[in-house]
From TrEMBL:
InterPro entries: Thioredoxin-like_sf, Thioredoxin_domain. SUPFAM superfamilies: Thioredoxin-like (SSF52833). It comes from the Bacteria. The keyword Secreted does not apply. Residues 22-172 form the Thioredoxin domain. Keywords: Signal. Residues 1-21 form the signal peptide. This is Thioredoxin domain-containing protein.
Length: 174
């Protein structure tokens, strides 16, 4: 009996920690939880691609981790600047929130689109992403509905820390 209660408690703690990893609600993110099979964590973007195609929008795909301090910082930036940023996001993008954990490795993290089902680094190569192949949180991709990247994205902490920088990205200014 104690073992069962302990497992239920651990499950609830896991759900609560995942709930903290989130893009702010004003951005109306499409939340995609991974399909976990014990070895991999697969994020299926196909429904988001179909919706983007039907709405004539691009995808702003955000990969965050529930236990990532840099992710919390970026999410707090988005929340603090929602009034100014949301109209720019909403005009052209469907925001997709992929929720992961720092313990998920690049070989375990699988991204599935209409064209690919690949581990993180292989996905990066397949779409022509020139950034480092190491799994970095947070990661952002701007994709056409068919999964092709709209531009090469900057990488590393400190990216998108001002409204002006975020707007440059949304306007596809390299």
């Amino acid at each position: 009996m104690i073992g069962r209660r302990f497992l239920v408690l651990i499950g609830l703690v896991g759900l609560l920690s995942t709930a903290h990893a989130a893009l702010p609600a004003p951005y109306a993110p499409i939340v995609i939880q991974p399909l976990v099979d014990g070895k991999t964590h697969e994020f299926d973007l196909r429904a988001a691609q179909q919706r983007a195609r039907s709405e004539g929008k691009w995808l702003y795909v955000y990969l965050g981790a529930s236990d990532c301090a840099y992710c919390r910082k970026y999410e707090a930036f988005l929340a603090a600047n929602a009034t100014e940023l949301v109209p720019h996001f909403a005009a052209k993008y469907l925001v997709v929130d992929l929720r992961s954990q720092l313990s998920v490795t690049e070989r375990q993290l699988i991204l599935r689109t209409e064209a690919h089902r690949l581990p993180y680094a292989d996905f990066q190569r397949a779409i022509g992403d020139q950034r480092a192949r190491l799994l970095v949180y947070p990661s952002v991709w701007l994709l056409e509905p068919d999964g092709k990247p709209l531009m090469q994205m900057p990488a590393g902490t400190g990216t998108f820390q001002t409204v002006a920088e975020q707007l440059e990205i949304l306007r596809l200014e390299e």
